Amino acid sequence: MVECKTLRHIVASSAEAETAGLLHNAQRAVPIRYMLSQLEHPQPPTPVKTYNETANNFIHNNITQKRSKSWDMRYYWLRDQHNQNNFDFYWDKSENNHGDYWTKHFPAIYHRFIRATYVLDEKTCEQN
Q1: How confident is the model at residue 11, as a pLDDT?
Q2: Are 58 and 19 in contact (CB under 8 A)?
Q3: What is the C-alpha to C-alpha distance for residues 94 and 76, in angstroms, rounded to an integer?
Q4: How many CB atoms are closer than 10 A to CB 125?
Q5: Domain boundaries defined on the chain
Q6: Which residue from 43, 77, 94, 102 lies 20 to 30 Å from 120 (Cα-Cα)?
Q7: What gap in Å lies between CA 80 and CA 53, rounded to an integer?
Q8: pLDDT at 67
Q9: What angle do CA 81, 87, 88 make, to 5 degrees?
Q10: Buried residues in 27-47 as b, exposed as e (16+ CB within 10 A)
Q11: Cα-based torsion angle of the residue sequence 85, 18, 111, 92 in order, rounded to the nearest 10 degrees
């Protein structure tokens, strides 16, 4: 499931914005997990990938916050969900994040190189 949403609150850092995105995605997954469990499909921890190491370390409680007032208390919900084995948050390097193509500024040569991964041309559609 992919959803695009603008954050309604101001964040102080990119790590906080990534954590807010993880919070949004995890909260969207809760009703789906509940529905499947009610249909007698037991759910293992749902894997959630992030490429922001600071957000991942925050969820796994591997960092100490120096500016704790800037991070919203609701982000601690992610840590609780991870501790309850509802979600499995894990970090992966940015090269494996396919969302970067749409959200980051890359030179034109990179876009030409990677475009075939995302865009089907007429020849590809005719072969299938």
Answers
A1: 81
A2: yes
A3: 24
A4: 8
A5: 1-94, 98-128
A6: 94
A7: 18
A8: 62
A9: 125
A10: eebeeebeeeeeeeeeeeebe
A11: -40
Token pair belonging to 2: 């992919």
Q: What is the pTM of this model?
A: 0.73
Closest CA to 70 of 23, 12, 123: 12
Indicate the burial class of 81 (C-beta count within 10 angstroms; 0-12, 13-18, 19 or more). buried
What's the pLDDT score for residue 68? 57
Tokens encoding 48? 């959630």
- Residues of the chain below pLDDT 50: 128
Query: Which amino acid is it at 69?
Result: K
Residue in the structure block whose two tokens are 């980051």: 104
Tokens encoding 77? 């919900």
